[in-house]
Design brief:
324 residues; alpha/beta; 5 strands; single chain; 2 domains; binds zinc ion; 15 helices; 7% strand; five-stranded parallel sheet; Zinc Finger, Delta Prime, domain 3; Rossmann fold
Length: 324
């Protein structure tokens, strides 16, 4: 097994053993395609690979302690370059061309110059073809780490030039142990529930737990009922809320509206939304989410205009029902 830095990636023992032998023999590829769903450890693995490429220790690379390793792991190494356009739906051909031009400038201080594509699947064919040109004949110091959900999202010509590293789900034992270390105060049932929903990918379970701590219990129930078109569930949620004070009710309605806003972004193809919003985005139409969001905003406005919480909750049952 390689250096300690490798342990940051849990599970995936076969993949790590293969990489450790490549690291120790110095037989690193110049192009890796790292695949797995959100939260599967793609970024962790990319950091390990980049550190192994820059590490100045003689053996057990990446050592995790040399200056080069530390800079890579702290994301401040000048020769590890992220190629992305945050907030945009796709990574454009212009962005790829800029990166391609930069490849021919030698590394600042590192052994290699490493280009990380965190959303390789969001490059269209033109962008991928622009990348292909430099992957085919790169300068000897250049390396490319492409992250995607699955290999099929990339052109066969790109795939054939990359070493595929496919991340696997973790076992429940490994996953729950990691969650207990990360969330020592949370009940085991909550950890187990998040683990079950995560499909075995630690990052997803962590995101669910973090998000559940940030959202009101009523919001989680609303999102769940709305995603499943559970009319009775929504009524059962709203009826007791009629007795809330307006300053309690209003922020809840706005939080629900925000979740629906995120669900619409999910439907528009943007990534990075909360899991709760993703569930809605996958099961409801944009029109449904928009209607419900407008209803909730109207409810919050009426509360500000002296309409009683009871009347607003009653109206919401009718308005939200219109989409169910
Ligand atoms: Zn090192």
């Amino acid at each position: 097994m390689g250096g300690e830095a490798m342990q940051a990636l849990l599970g995936n023992e076969g993949l790590k053993a293969g990489l450790a032998s490549a690291f120790s023999s110095g037989k690193l590829s110049h192009c890796y395609l790292i695949t797995g769903p959100v939260g599967s450890g793609r970024h962790t693995l990319a950091a390990i690979l980049a550190a192994a490429m820059e590490c100045t220790a003689g053996s057990r690379r990446p050592c995790g302690v040399c200056l080069a390793c530390r800079k890579v792991l702290d994301q401040v190494h000048p020769d590890v370059i992220t190629v992305d356009e945050p907030g945009k739906k796709t990574v454009s051909v212009e962005t790829v061309r800029r990166a391609r031009a930069d490849v021919y400038i030698r590394p600042n201080e590192g052994l290699r110059k490493i280009y990380v594509f965190p959303r390789a699947m969001d490059m269209n064919a033109a962008a991928q073809n622009a990348l292909l040109k430099v992957i085919e004949e790169p300068p000897d110091y250049a390396a490319f780490l492409l992250l995607a959900e699955s290999a099929e999202q990339l052109l066969p010509t790109i795939r054939s030039r990359a070493v595929l590293l496919r991340l696997s789900p973790l076992s429940e034992t490994v996953g729950l142990e990691a969650l207990k270390r990360r969330f020592p105060d949370r009940p085991v049932e909550a950890l187990r529930d998040a683990w079950t929903r995560s499909g075995g990918f630690l990052g997803q379970a962590e995101a669910i737990l973090t998000e559940h701590a940030a959202l009101a219990p009523e919001t989680l129930r609303f999102a769940d009922c709305f995603a499943r078109r559970d009319r009775l569930g929504l009524t059962e949620l709203l009826v007791p809320m009629e007795r809330m004070k307006r300053e309690q009710l209003q922020p809840l309605l706005l939080q629900w509206a925000e979740i629906l806003h995120q669900a619409m972004l999910v439907r528009a193809g943007l990534t990075g939304a909360w899991e709760t919003a993703r569930q809605i985005g996958h099961s409801r139409t944009t029109a449904d989410a928009l209607h419900a969001q407008q209803s909730l905003r109207r409810g919050a406005e009426l509360l500000g205009g002296n309409v009683s919480p009871g009347a607003v909750c009653g109206a919401l049952q009718v308005w939200l029902d219109e989409t169910n």
